From TrEMBL:
Residues 1-21 form the signal peptide. Belongs to the NADH dehydrogenase family. Keywords: FAD, Flavoprotein, NAD, Oxidoreductase, Signal. Residues 4-312 form the FAD/NAD(P)-binding domain. This is NAD(P)/FAD-dependent oxidoreductase. It holds the Pfam family Pyr_redox_2. It comes from Zestomonas insulae.
Length: 400
């Protein structure tokens, strides 16, 4: 009977885990182990781009790619991890219960934005998953059918972190595309921080402020949303903002599947792993991507919930899960190079290097890099066996 590496999730970390595991097995001419991916759909959803328009196009099919490298795809939603029995129970596309056994499990089930227990939160949109991002896009496109009013022309973005900033700075152009080039639009970021872009550090701060002023994006600092309704938000200080569109970007938490693994987790629900991405105390389970609390370098920095880290985490997890079955040496996960490229809408973008976020490129130069990242670098490799397996080498540096 074949051994099985089971990967739960087909996002950046899950996809690269599958390719990397297949690569190492291929290098050793090993055919007694199968690589299986369990996920709701055989496509990579390009989540870092969900703040942009035309979000329905931001997917990449994986069927041909998986077939080319010999990875088996199972369509279903994981519901229960039986650690002692080494199996994952799932619901298939017909709604029936089924299960898959594993010899090694790679948990790559991702994360979701946290929707708090807040009055009227159901009225808020988000750009976290594709269905919600499409819902937001359809809503924006429908605004022109409403009577003109300040509320119709106003968007409130809750949260001034990376996603909040990219969403807010793209929004003036999206609103004018829906309401007319001369429309008097208003975009307001509500953030707990004491200064604009504080979460991104001192390097980009002044540039985010400059871009916000140029684009007309307002900031309400030292503030938070206390309630949402169909016509706007009420802030914690009682201030009211009339807005037909509220986008929630505050807080992210790892998949709840992590709670079924008896192991230590961080405040965001991520599983503590060793340098080979094996879950501490679980010899047969690896965690990767947004569900892994993983050290990236010798300075003690930890991976963030970004596709930049998920790609390298996936390559390492797949390689090391396969290595543990082949009884060959693993390759410790390491990702010392850290960059960011923050899209600032029509203003351009800011590219930084290092954990101190030293600014390297801005405006058009930064935008050129951002366009290449979003349109090329983060997409899957071609469905060519040799090319795809070569691309999954865990020693390839990732800068996207």
């Amino acid at each position: 009977m074949k051994q099985r590496i089971l990967i739960v999730g087909a996002g950046f970390a899950g996809m690269w885990s599958a390719l990397s595991a297949a690569r190492l097995l291929d290098l050793h001419g090993h055919t007694a182990t199968e690589v299986v991916v369990l996920a709701p759909q055989a496509e990579l959803r390009i989540r870092p781009r969900f703040y942009e328009p035309n979000v329905h196009k931001m997917t990449a099919p994986l069927d041909d790619l998986f077939a080319a490298v010999g990875v088996t795809f199972v369509k279903g939603i994981a519901e229960r991890i039986d650690v002692d029995g080494k199996r994952v129970e799932y619901r298939d596309e017909q709604g029936h219960s089924a299960a898959l056994d594993y010899d090694r499990l790679i948990l790559a089930s991702g994360s979701s934005v946290v929707r708090p227990n807040l009055a009227g939160i159901e009225h808020a949109f988000d750009v976290d998953h594709i269905d919600q991002a499409v819902r937001l896009e359809q809503h924006i496109q429908s605004l022109g059918q409403l009577p003109a009013s300040p509320a119709r022309n106003t968007v409130v973005v809750a949260g001034g972190g990376f996603t909040g900033i990219e969403t807010a700075t793209e929004m003036p152009a999206r609103l004018r595309a829906a309401l007319g080039a001369d429309a008097d639009v208003r975009v307001i970021v509500v953030d707990r921080g004491s200064k604009i872009g504080k979460a991104l550090g001192d390097g980009p701060h002044t540039l985010i402020a400059e871009a916000s002023e140029e684009l007309g994006v307002e900031w309400r600092l030292n503030s938070s949303v206390a309630a949402v309704d169909a016509d706007g938000v009420t802030l914690a200080d009682g201030q009211r903002i009339e807005a037909k569109t509220v986008v929630w970007t505050v807080g992210v938490r790892a998949s709840s599947l992590t709670e079924q693994v008896p192991a230590e987790r961080d405040a965001q629900g991520r599983l503590h792993v060793d340098r080979n991405l094996k879950v501490l105390g679980q010899p047969d389970i690896f965690a990767t991507g947004d569900v892994a609390y993983a050290v990236v370098d010798d300075a003690g920095n930890y991976a963030l919930m970004t596709c930049q880290h998920a790609i390298a985490l996936g390559r390492s997890a797949g390689n090391n899960a396969a290595a543990s079955l082949l009884d060959v040496a693993p390759i410790a996960y390491s990702q010392p190079k850290y960059v960011t490229c923050l899209d600032l809408g029509a203003w351009g973008a800011v590219f930084t290097e290092g954990w101190q976020r030293e600014v390297k490129f801005v405006r058009d130069e930064g935008k050129r890099i951002k366009t290449e990242i979003n349109g090329v670098w983060i997409y899957p490799p071609a469905a060519n066996r040799a090319e795809a397996l070569a691309a999954a080498d865990p020693l390839i540096p990732v800068v996207a």
